[in-house]
């Protein structure tokens, strides 16, 4: 354990962070107002209530802070299974009105993480959104980490309601590694994220998914509408393996199982 980290905890301090985000329809004002009242939070966060218990709502004020939770993941300390230790869920705190210059429509919230001396240096974090609507997460910055300075997480990603995901959304510190040099406690999380992005080649792609899966061009015609609109599959053969398109998982045409229909 780095001495600075242990001293930080011994002083009874927490790891401070700032989250920068943008609401839908700055980006849908309805998504924001749905979380601006206690009923709105309760309606959009049934799963949130189950995880945190009713008492959290007794002290929460209205706003995004009570509907978004984060957990830090250690890049230097692993649990018994070899995975980086995961900290406690932490809610966003007060809206920051005196933050440095932000982009148009951007907002900042403070967050303070409990992080004991055995947790090491944070290298990733989970985030969960319990609102009905999504928001655009721009970044998280952990401030004044001993022997590290600020740790930046550049995210630039839409965060949908947590129930829409089969695996938790995870982000990694803005530091690149060769695969062989990835800190061992982060290897599991990197591999799981890669599996999520690759998908399994099944199902229809949904708005909140981030799967980068590929398919042949089998959707350039519509034989179900008219026989003359049938078109051959482009790509996927031994002689012409390419081009490829993003796989959507749309249902195949009725008159040609290898063909998909644009929708």
From TrEMBL:
Protein name, entry field: PLAT domain-containing protein
One annotated GO molecular function: oxidoreductase activity, acting on single donors with incorporation of molecular oxygen, incorporation of two atoms of oxygen
InterPro entries: LipOase, LipOase_C, LipOase_C_sf, LipOase_plant, PLAT/LH2_dom, PLAT/LH2_dom_sf
Pfam family, one: PLAT
GO BP annotation list: fatty acid biosynthetic process; lipid oxidation; oxylipin biosynthetic process
Top-level lineage group: Eukaryota
Lipoxygenase domain boundaries: 176-263
Family membership noted in the UniProt record: Belongs to the lipoxygenase family.
Boundaries of every PLAT domain copy: 44-173
UniProt key word Hydrolase: no
Keywords assigned by UniProt, alphabetized: Dioxygenase, Fatty acid biosynthesis, Fatty acid metabolism, Lipid biosynthesis, Lipid metabolism, Metal-binding, Oxidoreductase, Oxylipin biosynthesis
SMART domains listed in its UniProt record: LH2 (SM00308)
Species name: Trifolium subterraneum
């Amino acid at each position: 354990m780095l001495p600075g980290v242990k001293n930080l905890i011994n002083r009874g301090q927490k790891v401070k962070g700032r989250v920068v985000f943008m609401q839908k329809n700055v980006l849908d004002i309805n998504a924001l107002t749905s979380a601006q009242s206690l009923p709105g939070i309760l309606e959009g966060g049934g799963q949130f209530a189950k995880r945190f218990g009713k008492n959290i709502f007794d002290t929460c004020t209205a706003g995004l802070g009570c509907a978004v939770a984060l957990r830090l993941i250690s890049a230097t300390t692993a649990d018994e299974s070899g995975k980086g230790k995961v900290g406690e869920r932490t809610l966003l705190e007060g809206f920051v009105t005196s933050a440095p210059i932000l982009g148009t429509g951007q907002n900042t919230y403070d967050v303070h993480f409990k992080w004991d001396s055995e947790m090491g240096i944070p290298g990733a974090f989970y985030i969960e959104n319990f609102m009905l609507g999504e928001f655009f997460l721009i970044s998280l910055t952990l401030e004044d980490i001993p022997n590290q300075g600020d740790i930046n997480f550049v995210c630039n990603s839409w965060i949908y309601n947590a129930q829409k995901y089969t695996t938790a959304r995870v982000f990694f510190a803005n530091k690149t590694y060769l695969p062989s040099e990835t800190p061992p406690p982060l290897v599991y999380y990197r591999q799981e994220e890669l599996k999520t992005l690759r998908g399994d080649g099944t199902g229809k792609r949904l708005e909140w998914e981030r799967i980068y899966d590929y398919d042949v061009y089998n959707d350039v015609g519509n034989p179900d509408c008219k026989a003359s609109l049938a078109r051959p599959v482009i790509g996927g053969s031994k002689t012409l393996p390419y081009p490829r398109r993003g796989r959507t998982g749309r249902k195949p045409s009725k008159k040609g199982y290898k063909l998909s229909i644009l929708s």
